[in-house]
Amino acid sequence: MMRLSATFTVDLLPGEDLPAADGRYDLSKTWTGDLEGTSSGLMLTSGDPVTGSAGYIALERFEGVLDGRRGTVTFHQLGTMADGQPTLEYVIAPGSGSGELTGLQGTLSIERIDDDGIHHVSLDLV
User: What's the predicted TM-score (pTM) here?
Assistant: First the structure.
């Protein structure tokens, strides 16, 4: 296993509502560190985050350089919050890699989020 570190900033823009979700957002990220590049994707939400109970799913395509290798991968996210307690599964979608990232597998963990919105993450590759 190999562990990489990176940061990202994210922009969320509300998108057109869909019948299967309470909210839809287009997202874009800028990555720095062991992941250098950009990603864009789609997030769907449901529930009531104000009361501490909600969930979301998201797919985002990363394009850039990961530990010196160039290509694309898709990240798949599944987040829930029940009674204010969050859980997050954040993985590289199997079979989504291209270029030098073909066949890449791994999980991403958010280590912390700074007050200015910078997300610090670790990526464990298998």
Answer: 0.92
